[in-house]
Write a structure and sequence with these properties.
274 residues, alpha/beta, Rossmann fold, 2 domains, ten-stranded mixed sheet, 10 helices, 21% strand, elongated
Length: 274
Amino acid sequence: MKKIILAFDGIMFSEGAFAFARRMNELAPVLVVGVFVPQVSYAGMWSYGVVAGAPSYLPLQETETGDIIRQNIQRFETLCQENGMRSHVHKDFFDFALPELLRETRFADLLVISSEQFYQHLGDEPASDYMRELLTKAECPVVIVPEDVCFPTKTILAYDGSASSVYAVKQFAYLFRELSLNETLLVFMKEDADEKFPEEHNIMELASEHFPMLELFKLDINPRKYFNQWVLENKDAILVSGAFSRSIFSQLLRKSFITDVIAEHKLPVFIAHR
C-alpha cells in the first residue's frame, strides 16, 4: 500500500488532486494524508523554517480562514470515508509551514498538488522560487494535477539520457504499476536533431520490462518552440520527467515548462529526482 500526501493550498480544496488520489485508490488501495497549508506569505512561510533561532512555523490567527480550512478538513475526511479510502489529516495547520511539508515528504511515496493552485503563485517571482524549491527538495516524487483532471490512459516518458530522466522512469513504474500497462511513449528530444538516441539499447531493455506497450519516439522538432504544442496533442496522458538536471527538459521546466504544460495544457505531470 502506498502513502500519498495531498497538499491543499490555503482555503482552496483541490477537486482535481482528490480525484486523482481517489482513482489511484480504485486501482490499488492507498493511505491518503491530507495536509492543509495556511494561505499566508510564501516568503514568510519558507524563511521562518530556515532562519536560525526562528520558530519552525509561521503562526496564523484563528479567523474566518481557519474556519474554512476546518470545513475543508471535514470535507476531506467525509469524501475519504465515502470512497473507502484510508486517510489521515495533519490537523496542526495553524503551525504548518512549507519546511514541515518537505519533512513529511521524506516519509511518503508520493506528493500530489493542484496545478491551478501551483500556477497561481507563479506570477509572484519570490513565490515561484519557493514552489520550484518544493519540487527540488521534496523527498518523494510529485504529481502536479489539473483541477479538471482526466485520469491518464497514456504515458509520456521524457528521456534525455541523463540519470535523472532514467530515475523518473523507474520511480513512475514502481509507483504506478497499473498505469504502466497503458500505451507508453519514450520520448527523446534534443536541440540537435542529428543527435542519436542515447543508450538506446539499455533504456529500451529497462523500460520494456515495465511498460509492455512501449514505443520509442524521437521528437525531431525545435523543443523550445513546439514541445508544448506536441504535448497538447496527446490527450489523456501523463508526462513523466526527471527534475532539474542539465538537460533540455530541465531548461523547459525552469522557463516555460511549468507555465505552459502544467497551467495552459492541463496535463498531469509526474516529477521525480534523486
